[in-house]
Structures are given as C-alpha cells and as structure tokens.
Design brief:
CATH architecture of the domain at 28-200: Orthogonal Bundle
CATH class of the domain at 28-200: Mainly Alpha
Strand content: 5-15%
Radius of gyration: 25 Å
Largest sheet: 5 strands, mixed
Distance between the termini: 27 Å
Strand order of the largest sheet: 3-4-5-9-6
CATH topology of the domain at 28-200: Neurolysin, domain 3
Length: 703
C-alpha cells in the first residue's frame, strides 16, 4: 500500500542520542536539519513542535502565494507555475514527519494535534485552490503554454496545475466555493475519526484470551510462544493472548482446531467499527460517502467515483465496473469449486456443519496439504526476516546494480527501525530506506510505504529520497528470530517496490516527479512480488533459520505447483471489496443510506458473493477508502496487476528474469521518469506495446 508522501501529495519517539545542537527556539523544524543526510532529527522533535511548525509553514506558503498573485509582471512559467511549485517548503517538511509518525507511533498528544491541524490544513488548501487571482495567472500561462517556448516537462507541469485548480473548485461561484470548503472540512474530520476508531478497534478493543492448553491444539509452536509473550506483557502470565493483528490472527485461523475460538477471533476482526460502541464507524462512513457525492456534484461530476477516476487510466466508473465484472465471474466460480473441495474434507472427517467464513483458512490449509503435500508451516522456518530483506536487496542488485548498506548514524523515530543507504553500482548515493517491521499498539494495521522526503531537484541539485516502509510482521519469539509466512514475504517485496519507485524518481518539479495515476501506483510494487517466488531467488535467500540449509528443491517445486491454489478466494474477496468501494462512491448527491450494513449486504448479494467469503474489507474497517486515499480506487491493485503480470512476462519471455536491458528500461520509463507522461504512455515506452490481460489470468489460474 502506498501512503502519504512518496510520489503523492501527501510523540515523537525519543529514541537515540545525536550530537545535533538544538535550534534557538527549541523547534527543530525551524532550521536546516543538521544531521547525516539531512534526516529529520526525530530524537529532538516533540509533539508540541508540530502545531507551531504547521502554522508557520502555512503562513510562509500563503506569503509566497501572495507574492505570486501581486507580481505586476505578466504571468509566465517562471513567475507563476515554477514559483508555485517551489512554494511551501516548511509545510512539506513538517507534514512529511507528522503524518508518517502518526501512523507508526500514534498517541493522544499526536491525535490532538491532528484534530486541531486537520481543519486548518483543509482551510489552507481550499483558500489556495480557490484563489481566483492565483487561478487567473495559472490559466493565462495555461492558455499560452504551446507558444511560450516551453519544453514538454514544463507544458505537462502547467497542464497538471491548471487541472488541479479546476478540479478543486477554482471556477465555482463564490457561493459554491463556500459550500465546497465546508464539505472539505467535514470530510477531512470524518476521515480522521474513521482512522482513530479503526486503530482502537484493531489494537485495543479485542483480544482472545486462551487459558486452556488444549485450546491451542493445531497451532505451530512459534505462534503459541508469541501468544504467551503477548499475554505476559498484558499481565496474564500463564495464559495465551491472540490479537487482531495479522501475525496473530491469520495463523490462528489457519491452524487452531477449536472451531468456536476461530469464530470468536474472526468475528472480532470482521466486526471492527460495527460494535455500536464509541468506536463505531457506520455513521462516519455513511456521512463521508454522502458528502463526497455532494462534493462531486458541486464540481460537475455524477459521483465521487466519476470525479476520482476521471484522472486515472480507466477514465470512467463504467470502465472500472466492466473490468471488475469480467474478472468476477471466473473468480467466483473458482472460489465455489474451492468451497466444495473444503466441504468434502469436512464431510469426510465427520463434521456435521457447513463451511463458514471462519473455517476457510483452516480447511484451505488442509486442502493445500492434500493437493500439494504442502503445509505453510513447512515454509516458515526458511523465511527468516533478515534473510528475506537481504534477498530483496539482492534482487534489486541483480536488476539494477544497486546496493543497500546498513547505517546507524542517523536519527530514527522508533528504536525498532533499521536504516539502509541505497547506492548506485559506482557507489554514488541514491537515498535512504527506513524499515519498520513489527506491530505496536501505537501503529496502524497493514503495511505501507511512504517517505520523509521525496526525491526531486533543488537549486539545480538532486534531492535524495528518504523512503520508509512500515509493516506488521511476525515478531521474534524467545530464541527464535522473526520468521515470516509467505504472505509477509510477498508483502515485503511489494512495499520494497514502492520504495524503489520513490528512490529512483527523477524530475525537476514537485507536482510531476514520480506522480502517477492512482491505478498505476501499484505497478512498481506488485511487479516486485513476482521475483519473490522464483526458484533462483528462493535458493538465494530461503535458508533454514537453525541449520542454514537452503530451501529444498522439493519445497520450491511445491511452491511452484501450488501457485494457483486458493486464487478463487483471494481474487473474489478482493474483487468484492473493490466493487463495494465502487458502490459506495457511485452514490449520487441526495441518495441517502439509512443503514450501512444493509447497503453492504445488498451490494454483495447483487454480485452473488457466497456466505463463506466476506469482502476483504467490510465497510466499517475499509481504511483504504475512508482513511487512506484509495476512495473509488481500491480496484487499482488488480488494474495494476494486469500491468505487472505483463511486465514480468517480458522478463520471463526473454529467458532471463534479471535481464539488464529490460530492467534498465523499466527503471527509466516506469520508475524514474514515471511522472513524465501519462501512465499508459510510460508503460508503452517500456513494453513497446499495450499490456495483455492473459499473463494475469494465467498467473491466477482463471483462464
């Protein structure tokens, strides 16, 4: 998942001691970072520093915009577009730290800052995007862009800013602009509330306490040990505690023989935000969906989906629905076949019940073992986290010649964070990569990539990116290191793909450097997943954590043969969530939803989703679309999957998965220069043709 700030618009942990002197007023944001690589001085930044820095950043940006507006010279690219592109440096600086740290190390002090600053930032952005005098200057440059001697990159920058202003209400009447400002503020505060509720429901509101050892039957020793440590930390020594964090939840669903407890923990998971308590999200998401529909109408669109997708490669909601529905039928049919196979196992074992959603993972594991003689617990000892990390670094080296070297002389926002310097083959500096692997009560769920500074240019010199990956992977337990499951392995490669996009980005302008359509964003990440399961790569990094033994060829072969396993379920639950997102955001202004869960049920019934499968994200915990920038855009993962499967197929067809020529073209056109033109244009520069859907269907066994 991609979050604010790498390639997109967009406490403090006192963790290490640095030699950097304090700034005169004690606020580290008000001077240059006197740290190695100009990393934010996390060891000095405190919660009370953020709000003054935000306010000063806003004041500086407004002053810079005012200077553009009051310039008596005729509008030009330099005095209007470029000046605007370079404005707001302090605001960008503090935002890049605050919003990232709030995701990883949240606390009440940071939440209070967010509640206070969110409406201020929303008002600030609206005041600029609806500044008529500023827009007049931008429009003048736009109208003259083709006869002003501008190069292609400058013309693109002008066009993007002009479109931004129009899409954000610059051409509305004063009355409608006032309405839009109120809508934007209310939506931003609801989004903040949704995220706070989800964090509480995931990390604080539920825990499964097991006090009988027999109820642990079936669970791997590593998961039992982790649950014991969690219990001890909670003051429940001698018991076992399982949480809704994925490293705890998924193994329990996969292996625990106690069906009642599987149901209990799964209900805890899928009822998040739907418990009629102080953290309930039903009214929040309904209100957000309705307000987004009103805003879209105000801006001249039929729905929020139409507004969002207008900027994407897909262009229209109708095209997205057509695309998703084409995949839905084969995915659902395959899922139904998988369901029948699992029900047959239940019947054979003498079970007197019908497969339920909380049974799927458990019987899928049995089915995998029956069909492929593969139990995922066989793989986990070979996926020590450090080795997986080194493996993905090795893949990047084989493709692009780059290296990653650990460094320990920079501040970090939490003691758990590792930092690596990325270097070109000639040793020159590319940027830094922060890695934050494990769950904390203060950390949001899931995995994402962001940055503390985006790559770009300043005063004619390259600015290196500070990319950051945050995950919620299995922790070390006892004497055992952190051992990952296969999903965590591919997730690490996925987020690393986002990081490479950020590290490689080039471009002279903030607005376009690395900025791509939403349905292109997941191409750089998803394409990296392909290498994780290649035999040549597995032989390099998959080593038994006790013996150092390379993963046996028999296991590699089983991984390859089981590639289509459970793909009906995986694809169907994802598509169901994508269609649910589209339905919420296809509402038209004035269409009222009285019951969020009834709306969800109707949407899922209409596509024929079977009871045994829930959408990957139900409405009340669908953070991607209500708190993560993917509204009317969750479909982008599978849209980009067409691209990534087609791209990797090019490597496979060449006979060399590390084909240096193809890698250089992919880096240049799809990563470094990705913002230079529209997404499909850049992809064609790499591939030489339009992408085919066939490699994706083949990969998932849906053809």
């Amino acid at each position: 998942m991609k979050k604010t700030s790498v390639l997109a618009i967009a406490l403090s942990a006192m963790v290490i001691s640095c030699t950097q002197p304090k700034t005169k007023d004690g606020n580290p944001f008000f001077s240059a970072y006197n740290t190695p690589y100009e990393v934010p001085p996390f060891d000095q930044i405190k919660a009370e520093h953020y709000l003054p820095a935000f306010k000063e950043g806003i004041a500086q940006k407004e002053k810079e915009v005012d200077a553009i507006v009051k310039n008596s010279e005729a509008p030009t690219f330099e005095n209007t577009i470029l000046a605007f592109d370079q404005s707001g440096e302090l605001l960008t600086k503090v935002s890049a730290v605050f919003f990232n740290v709030k995701e990883t190390d949240n606390n009440e002090a940071l939440q209070q800052v967010a509640r206070e600053v969110t409406p201020i930032l929303t008002k600030h952005r609206d005041n600029i995007s609806m500044n008529l005098d500023l827009f007049k200057r931008v429009k003048k440059v736009y109208e003259n862009r083709l006869n002003s001697g501008l190069d292609a990159a400058q013309i693109r920058l002008v066009e993007k800013y002009y479109q931004d202003f129009v899409r954000n209400g610059a051409e509305l009447s004063v009355e409608d602009q006032d309405k839009l400002k109120k809508l934007n503020e209310e939506i931003s505060m609801l989004s903040l509330k949704f995220g706070e509720n989800l964090l509480a429901e995931t990390n604080k509101s539920f825990k499964l306490v097991v006090d009988k050892k027999e109820d642990l039957a079936g669970l791997p020793e590593g998961n039992i040990a982790a649950a014991a440590e969690t219990a001890k930390a909670a003051g429940l020594e001698g018991k076992w505690v399982f949480t809704l964090q994925k490293p705890s939840l998924i193994p329990f669903l996969q292996y625990a023989k106690n069906r009642e407890l599987r149901e209990k923990i799964y209900r805890g998971y899928f009822m998040r935000g739907n418990n009629d308590n102080e953290f309930d999200n039903k009214e929040v998401l309904v209100k957000m969906s309705e307000l987004r529909a009103y805003r879209a109408k105000l801006l001249g669109f039929d729905s929020h989906a139409a507004y969002v997708i207008d900027e994407n490669m897909a262009k229209t909601p109708e095209k997205v629905y057509d695309f998703l529905n084409q995949l839905w039928t084969p995915a659902l049919e395959r899922a139904k076949g998988e369901m029948k196979e699992m029900q047959a196992i239940i019947n054979k074992e003498g079970g007197k019940f019908k497969l339920a959603s909380w049974d799927w993972w458990y019987y899928a594991e049995k089915l995998r073992k029956a069909k492929y003689d593969l139990d995922e617990s066989q793989l986990i000892p070979y996926f020590q986290l450090d080795n997986v990390r080194d493996g993905m670094f090795w893949v990047a080296n084989q493709l692009y010649g780059i290296t990653f070297e650990p460094i320990n002389n920079v501040p970090v926002y939490n003691p758990q964070v590792e930092v690596y310097e990325a270097k070109e083959a000639d040793g020159s500096h590319i940027g830094l990569l922060f890695l934050d692997y494990h769950p904390r009560d203060s950390k949001g769920p899931g995995a994402w990539c962001t940055s503390f500074r985006d790559a770009g240019m300043k005063n004619g010199k390259r600015v290196a990116a500070l990319a950051s990956i945050a995950c919620n992977f299995t922790k070390p337990t006892g004497d055992a290191p952190a051992l990952l499951n296969w999903d965590e392995v591919t997730t690490m490669f996925h987020e690393f793909g986002h990081a490479l996009h950020g590290l490689f980005t080039t471009g002279a302008y903030r607005r376009t450097a690395g900025v791509v359509p939403q349905d292109y964003v997941e191409l750089p990440s998803q394409v990296m997943e392909n290498w994780a399961g290649e035999p040549e790569v597995l032989r390099h990094f998959a080593r038994h954590y006790k013996t150092g033994e390379v993963i046996p060829e028999a296991l590699i072969e089983k991984i390859q043969k089981s590639g289509h396993f459970n793909q009906g379920f995986v694809t169907a639950e994802y598509l169901a969530a994508s269609l649910l997102d589209m339905d919420w955001h296809s509402l038209k202004a004035g269409e009222m939803v009285k019951d969020a869960m009834a709306f969800e049920k109707k949407a899922m019934d209409e596509i024929g989703l079977i009871d045994e499968i829930l959408p990957r994200y139900r409405s009340t915990y669908f953070g991607h679309i209500y708190d993560g920038g993917y509204s009317a855009g969750y479909y982008v993962y599978i849209w980009a999957a067409v691209l990534d499967a087609d791209a990797f197929d090019a490597f496979k067809q060449s006979g060399d998965i590390f084909n240096k020529e193809l890698a250089a073209k992919f880096r240049k056109h799809c990563l470094a220069e990705s913002g230079d033109d529209e997404g499909m244009v850049q992809y064609r520069k790499f591939r030489g043709q339009d992408p085919s859907v066939t490699p994706l269907l083949s990969r998932r066994g849906l053809n």
